[in-house]
Amino acid sequence: MPAEMTEGREIGLRQSIPISSWADLTKAQARHTNTTRNWCRESLGKMGLKTTALRSLNAFPRAEEHLMQKTSSGAAVTILGLVLMVTLFVHELSYQLSTIVVHEMSVDLTREQKLPIVINMTFPALPCGALSLDSIDMSGKHEVDIDTNIWKIRINKDGYILGSEYVSDLVEGEHTSDIAKEEAAAKKAMEDAGHFHHDPLEGESHEHYHENKLFGDPQKVVKDIKKAIENHEGCRIFGVLDVERVAGNFHISMHGLSVYVAQQVYPSVSDVNVSHVIHDLSFGPKYPGLHNPLDDTVRILKDESGTFKYFLKIVPTEYSYLNGVVMPTNQFSVTEYFMSTKAYEQNWPAVYFVYDLSPIAVKVREERRHLGHFFTRICAVLGGTFAVTGMLDRWVYRLIEMIQHSSTRRGVMR
């Protein structure tokens, strides 16, 4: 719009408004302008105060580049701190990736299950013909000279295999294939090493041999056992024994022989040497970290005879792997007792395992550590290392300054 027209309008407006009203309007506009200017100044002042207060909370103040001094000692401390940080980080990472095992206890609710007993023992002073494995439990079940899923391996005085016996027509359960594979592997290994000796008696079936022990010719049984004793034969017995899930005991003794045969072989009970080595005794499969207290137990008698009794407390256990697989098994504690046998006594020495089941079951499960804990530990480790190296750097710097200042003063005095 042209300036002349604008001025004309303002002149016309002024002429149409009274002078007193025009003065009031001008004053009002001036007051409004001053108020707006003051409000802006106050707002900018408040913002400046807030900015200043916010800057005062800064925990990481920055110094200008020309005010910082880099030293060789600071570089050495920095390298040391970095090495320490990397080492601690690797340690924390390996700790995070490791598996933790959590134990829980509850009442045992297991029902109608068999209790597997895994046996692997060596009797260096007793031949297999004289040994028998017997079991009895509180349900009233009593078995003598058990041969189901049980191997007897004849060994010589040096521990080499001579032969074995196994009943195949009475085998039940699911352990047969594993035991047969173990025996076949043992035989093959001994044959390859030239330590396996074939024996004429090995051709006999175990059923026929077992029948001879109880119902066959006693003189033949006595002769065979005495011959084995003269040859310093021992016996390794191993296998899996499935029993009822109640308290009971199993023992390895000479109870499978008739009284006549036992007395003909051993005139006195003190002549029976039940020295033994327990290679493995467990009540189910093993899980990581489980150690059975009787594994690799050696009990050798020199000039005495007696009965060993092991009192076992079996704890039902359930192990859960990370992948969700659950494995039922058992762990146990043991108390050992030995009772010496005198020549005039009538009880034959034996090795007893008396077991009882705990009403409390243990659940063991594998877990991973939470990722949040890992980050918390990493922040603590890295932050703590940074703070410590900073303090160390200041101490080293001040120590160097003190040494240099002391050297300078000595030079001036000279």
UniProtKB/TrEMBL annotation:
Topological relation to the membrane, as annotated: Multi-pass membrane protein
Domain of life of the native organism: Eukaryota
Domain named Endoplasmic reticulum vesicle transporter N-terminal: residues: 54-143
All copies of domain Endoplasmic reticulum vesicle transporter C-terminal, residue ranges: 221-393
GO CC terms, sorted: membrane
Entries under InterPro entries matching the protein: Erv (IPR045888), Erv_C (IPR012936), Erv_N (IPR039542)
Subcellular compartments: Membrane
Keywords (A to Z) from UniProt: Membrane, Transmembrane, Transmembrane helix
Family listed: Belongs to the ERGIC family.
Listed name of the protein: Endoplasmic reticulum-Golgi intermediate compartment protein 3
Native source organism of the sequence: Riccia fluitans
